[in-house]
Design goal:
With about 425 residues, this protein is of the alpha/beta class. Helices cover about 40% and strands about 15% of the residues. The strands form 4 sheets. The chain has a 7-stranded mixed sheet with strand order 2-8-7-6-5-3-4, with helices on both faces. Strand 11 and strand 12 form a beta hairpin. The longest helix has 26 residues, at about 295-320. The N and C termini lie far apart (about 55 Å). The protein binds pyridoxal-5'-phosphate. Pyridoxal-5'-phosphate binds near residues 46, 178, 182 and 256.
Length: about 425
């Protein structure tokens, strides 16, 4: 039987400080339509549509068979720390050592524990927009204040060094750099990162969060680097975040990790020790295997190639639709399309006023789910994920094209 708390029981204030997700509302609606038998095309997915590679699953079966089902040290077994430290060193040029890395339940938790370890009430966190939806909410949960700096679409949604410099204040405690980026699909080149690093190096009160979880998914010859390697002053005050979710199609395993200054990593582990102890024990060896077995590289490349073809295709088709602009995706698996030229038009009884109403009508009338950019700081754009098959991409874009063609200009009567 359903139950509810008596009216006298109040939830903590922090719950109301966190915004409800528009993304969840749209995906919930799309799910409900699909359950009613409607043929919905979803461009909402924030995860690879591929399965976890078999050799990683086999390692998990082996771990279970060996009885690796008990508590492990906080945050994980030494083999996993060693694999992560070796990965950071070989692939990113970051020599952290095992006491400067940690493992968390997903990349999301790594970011959260780092904020929890660093933020005092009122500390400010600078977040370049468009941004991943959880950053500001996590900041607020940790007592911090999110501050935004908007990148320009004409600059491929990349922050310029001057914009970054102007946005930093004495109250800024953390700056978040997410490249390759969700939701825009942009990616800073090593040269661009170097210029941003030069700005950050001047402000020695700032900790840099470098969210590199999409680092393996790069397209069109795009190159990138870890910002912590870009200036000698940054290594000791940058935390580099990564996870298995996107690179190895392991979103449901909840495996994230981070490397950074020993004291901050130790603080994160102290907090984890009282909250979740460690990640699931029988995922720890497979997580190390994913990073060390050469089949890991092969499986990532096979997935990346597919994403590259789909991303190019989706982007070209979007550009062919009337009055939609879109920056070419260079990483991750998202196109971030500007649909604002259609605002003020009418669909059925509804007037399209922003990305939310655009997405809502597209779903209701043409059964295509896209994510409005409002939760990412841009109410003029929608995010389309190309982590879905070519057939679905074509079907969904045919429908999007038909939707845009069906929009009518709104005539108001002047009195
Ligand atoms: C930019 C960014 N950072 C972090 C995460 C969190 O990843 P995880 O699923 O490992 O928690 C996501 C997930 O979508 C993301 O897009």
């Amino acid at each position: 039987m359903a139950t509810n708390a008596p009216a006298a029981i109040q939830l903590a204030d922090r719950v109301s400080r966190v915004a409800s997700s528009i993304t969840l509302a749209i995906t919930g609606k799309a799910g409900a339509l699909a359950r009613q038998g409607v043929d919905v095309v979803s461009f909402g997915a924030g995860e690879p549509d591929f399965d976890t590679p078999q050799f990683i699953k086999d390692a998990a079966l082996k771990a279970l068979a060996k009885g690796q089902t008990k508590y492990t040290p906080v945050p994980c077994i030494i083999e996993l720390k060693q694999a992560i430290a070796a990965k950071f060193s070989a692939e990113n040029g970051l020599d952290y050592g095992v006491d400067c890395v940690t493992v968390t339940p997903g990349g999301k938790a790594a970011l959260f524990f780092a904020m929890l370890a660093l933020l005092n009430d009122g500390d400010e966190v600078l977040i370049p927009a468009p941004y991943w939806v959880s950053y500001p909410e996590q900041v607020k949960l940790c007592g911090g204040v999110p501050r935004f700096v908007h990148a320009e679409e004409s600059a491929d949604f990349k922050l310029t060094p001057a914009q970054l410099d102007a946005a930093i204040t004495p109250r800024t405690k953390i700056v978040i750099i997410n490249s390759p980026n969700n939701p825009t699909g942009n990616c800073y080149s090593p040269l661009e990162l170097e210029a941003l690093a030069a700005v950050l190096a001047k402000h020695d009160h700032i900790v840099v969060f470098s969210d590199e979880i999409y680092e393996k998914l790069l397209y069109g010859g795009q190159e990138t680097a870890s910002i912590a390697t870009m200036h000698p002053a940054l290594f000791d005050r940058t935390i580099t975040f990564n996870c298995h979710s996107k690179s190895f199609a392991m979103t449901g395993w909840r495996l994230g990790y981070a490397g950074g200054p020993r004291a901050i990593i130790a603080a994160m582990d102290k907090l984890q020790g009282q909250i979740n102890s460690h990640v699931t024990s029988f995922t720890q060896l497979p997580a190390a295997v994913a990073l060390t077995d050469p089949r890991g590289v092969e499986s990532i490349e096979a997935m990346r190639e597919q994403f590259e073809k789909r991303g190019e295709h989706m982007w070209k088709r979007l550009l062919a639709i009337d009055d939609i602009t879109c920056v070419r995706p260079r990483g991750a698996f998202y196109c971030f399309a500007n649909v604002s030229a259609h605002f003020g038009k009418v669909s059925g009884e509804a007037i399209i006023t922003d990305a939310v109403t655009f997405a809502a009508r597209l779903l209701e009338a043409h059964h295509v789910a896209v994510i409005p950019g409002n939760d990412s700081g841009f109410d003029t754009h929608v995010r389309l994920s190309f982590a879905t098959s070519m057939e679905q991409i074509d079907k969904g874009l045919d429908r999007l094209e038909a939707f845009v063609k069906s929009l009518k200009l709104h005539h108001t009567t002047a009195f």
